[in-house]
From TrEMBL:
Record-annotated membrane-spanning stretches: 24-45, 57-76, 91-111, 132-154, 174-194, 214-236, 248-274
GO molecular function: neuropeptide receptor activity
Sequence ranges assigned to domain G-protein coupled receptors family 1 profile in this UniProt record: 36-271
A Pfam family of this chain: 7tm_1
Membrane found in the keyword field: yes
Gene3D superfamilies to which the protein is assigned, alphabetical: Rhodopsin 7-helix transmembrane proteins (1.20.1070.10)
CDD domains: 7tm_classA_rhodopsin-like
Keyword terms of this UniProt record: Membrane, Transmembrane, Transmembrane helix
Subcellular location per the Swiss-Prot or TrEMBL entry: Membrane
Protein known as: G_PROTEIN_RECEP_F1_2 domain-containing protein
């Protein structure tokens, strides 16, 4: 979320007017993100056994967070000024919590893979479905409590676009993002180094291991390059003050914020592309749809053929 939209100077609230292009951008990202996140969530809840694959609970949490962002934030952002002021606090509570939850669960995903690399024989004793469910509940509960405290300082001046929040209070929010993203990247780098230096594994086993780690590396790198630049720019502007807020700064923040939105939309696509279980299930679903469509076309064709009147052979008079 664009922090400059929300956290304004305590004496000068920020108001934004949306163009047709910006409205189309938010709506298209929201619709595409909702579709793909719903696909991932549907496959996970219906086909994946979390007893056998407990780490998928983390993926489900990340998907739920991104899905709520697409529904609550992207699809409604152009019309935020028309919201009832009473909805502003729940609105910001949801989107701040979801963004934090997505970043924190990426850290949990890296920790999970680190345990898998370091303790492969004891992994399923350390990482269990019950423990991950407790961690998930604690993550959501703790972040909701934190953001309730942050939102309590938010003042609404007429509409949800005209909000006042002390920037030093909101500073905890981008600091959290930066710390979580850098932590995830550092853990992924550590995991890569450990996996690369494993000397007791054959080349085939090493290749299989890196295929399993591909989702983690791609998700972490994607988040690092799409989310971190905007957060760092915002933090830099807070420490630099008004001297840094020139045209170049506003152009850069707008550009990187658009990249952040696209990043949230692409997250489920990365999940489907890099995780075999989601990719195969999606292919099977499309295969069944195509098979059913072909069957229906064949049945209609046969029905039309059976309903046609029989052809009569004309009598020949020269016989």
């Amino acid at each position: 979320m664009n922090s400059t939209d929300l956290v304004t100077n305590v004496t000068k609230p920020f108001i934004e007017d949306f163009t047709i292009g910006e409205t189309a951008f938010y709506l298209s990202c929201g619709i595409v993100g909702t579709i793909f996140n719903s696909i991932v969530l549907g496959i996970a809840l219906r086909y994946i056994n979390t007893e056998d694959k407990p780490r998928q609970i983390i993926v489900i949490n990340m998907t739920v967070a991104d899905l709520l962002m697409c529904i609550v934030y992207m699809k409604t952002r152009p019309w935020l000024s028309y919201f009832n002021p009473e909805l502003c606090h729940p609105y910001y509570l949801i989107i701040w919590t979801c963004q934090m939850c997505s970043c924190l669960n990426l850290v949990w995903l890296n920790v999970d893979k680190l345990i898998y690399i370091q303790f492969p024989l004891h992994y399923y004793q350390i990482v269990t479905r019950k423990r991950l469910l407790w961690i998930s509940a604690a993550t959501w509960g703790g972040l909701i409590a934190l953001n309730i405290a942050l939102v309590s300082f938010l003042q609404v001046k007429g509409s949800c676009l005209m909000t006042v929040l002390n920037p030093y209070v909101y500073l905890l929010n981008p600091i959290f993002y930066v710390v979580m993203i850098i932590t995830s990247f550092s853990l992924s780098a550590l995991i890569y180094c450990i996996a690369h230096n494993l000397t007791h594994m054959e080349e085939r086993q090493r290749s299989k291991l890196f295929r399993r780690l591909f989702f983690l590396f791609s998700s972490t790198l994607w988040t690092f390059f799409t989310c971190l630049p905007y957060r760092l720019l915002y933090l830099f502007s807070n420490f630099c003050g008004e001297y840094c807020r020139n045209n170049a700064y506003f152009f850069a923040t707008t550009l990187f914020f658009r990249l952040l939105i696209v990043g949230i939309m692409i997250n489920p696509v990365i999940t489907i592309w890099t995780q075999r279980i989601y990719r195969l299930r999606l292919v099977r679903v499309f295969g069944k749809l195509r098979e059913n469509s072909s069957t229906e076309v064949l049945m209609v064709s046969n029905r039309r053929t059976s309903e046609m009147p029989p052809e009569h052979t004309p009598l020949r008079c020269d016989m």
